[in-house]
Amino acid sequence: MSQGKARVISTELLPNSEAEWKRLVKTTYIGQDGVTRTWEHAERTTRPEGSPFDGVSVVAILEKDTGREILLEKQYRPPLDKICIELPAGLVDKEETAEQAAVRELKEETGYVAQALTTSPIMFNDPGFCNTNFKLVEVSVDMSLPENQNLKPELEENEFIEVFHVKLDGLWDECVRWEAQGYALDARLASFAKGIQIAQKFGLVSRP
Amino acid sequence: MSQGKARVISTELLPNSEAEWKRLVKTTYIGQDGVTRTWEHAERTTRPEGSPFDGVSVVAILEKDTGREILLEKQYRPPLDKICIELPAGLVDKEETAEQAAVRELKEETGYVAQALTTSPIMFNDPGFCNTNFKLVEVSVDMSLPENQNLKPELEENEFIEVFHVKLDGLWDECVRWEAQGYALDARLASFAKGIQIAQKFGLVSRP
């Protein structure tokens, strides 16, 4: 994916009263020492009522003849003014489980039909800065299904996503290369890649 | 660490004009299709001029007789109203390198004296929501140094951090347990743990 025409033209401060998707909040809290202080943070305004999380990210590992590959996405992100490499992800709909959201988002963004295998605890993106969070859902993709060979993503009108996959084994080295090529790296993806690299570096063996 | 008295008393919308550390921004951008659109996002106001990143997180692995352990922190986070388990981390100072920031923050927050080993690409916490980012610095800690047995953290007046370490090998299982115990999980830490778990699950072998 080339960045093409995509670029930021201008930025301006946004008052909460005009914001539709995000807001800035001041919290008054009591600290561990009993002293009352304030804290600033940012929030999404989209979390469904009753849901403890905003969205999901998807770990989809494809079993290829040449080894396991992980499904990733390239997407221009205006806050960074760069194309960012990320796990497939999306916001959860009202009354939707994490597993349903993961399967739906993966289908919409990549065309792959998958089944949820495991779901993580809630993970907070930047706990001092905002309350945004997600669950990480690991899915299985049956590559023998006809629909997984004839992919039909259903992107929204303003979504431009390039889907690709790389060897799970060398993901960290790819992250380093992608930055050198001018891409931005999502922290959840890069932290996952670093975990694999550290496990390999220290020869951490399989656990029962 | 017990949450003790720590709790949110109230929250209110915060106008940009009164915000000190964060701001809400509207970006006008051209998309890949050449169409002009707007995007909302949040930013830190603390990134030093000329620095492409906000801060650092630290992977500090302690070589213990009983196996490798990773250094972690518990900290009450007002945006979550929970104690969150995270890697040691902090904002970068003006004209400071990522390596200097990592060694300084680790010393201040945990007391450990360390040396930087490797530094990651820039990692973006939540690219659709905000532009906050960091570099992940892996450090070595010489446990034979006297200062690393007689730890002297230098916390600020409003910082309350409990330092602890757990086996690198079982980090993902610990993450699951921590949530069940009522702790919040940082996404960078949990993604790193998931990477280790996936490497173990698939028996990914050491790379040269």
UniProtKB/TrEMBL annotation, chains A, B:
<dbReference type="GO" id="GO:0005829">
    <property type="term" value="C:cytosol"/>
</dbReference>
<dbReference type="GO" id="GO:0047631">
    <property type="term" value="F:ADP-ribose diphosphatase activity"/>
</dbReference>
<dbReference type="InterPro" id="IPR000086">
    <property type="entry name" value="NUDIX_hydrolase_dom"/>
</dbReference>
<dbReference type="GO" id="GO:0019693">
    <property type="term" value="P:ribose phosphate metabolic process"/>
</dbReference>
<feature type="domain" description="Nudix hydrolase">
    <location>
        <begin position="51"/>
        <end position="188"/>
    </location>
</feature>
<dbReference type="GO" id="GO:0006753">
    <property type="term" value="P:nucleoside phosphate metabolic process"/>
</dbReference>
<dbReference type="InterPro" id="IPR015797">
    <property type="entry name" value="NUDIX_hydrolase-like_dom_sf"/>
</dbReference>
<dbReference type="InterPro" id="IPR020476">
    <property type="entry name" value="Nudix_hydrolase"/>
</dbReference>
<dbReference type="GO" id="GO:0005739">
    <property type="term" value="C:mitochondrion"/>
</dbReference>
<dbReference type="InterPro" id="IPR020084">
    <property type="entry name" value="NUDIX_hydrolase_CS"/>
</dbReference>
<keyword id="KW-0378">Hydrolase</keyword>
<dbReference type="GO" id="GO:0005634">
    <property type="term" value="C:nucleus"/>
</dbReference>
<comment type="similarity">
    <text>Belongs to the Nudix hydrolase family.</text>
</comment>
<protein>
    <submittedName>
        <fullName>MutT/nudix family protein</fullName>
    </submittedName>
</protein>
<dbReference type="Pfam" id="PF00293">
    <property type="entry name" value="NUDIX"/>
</dbReference>
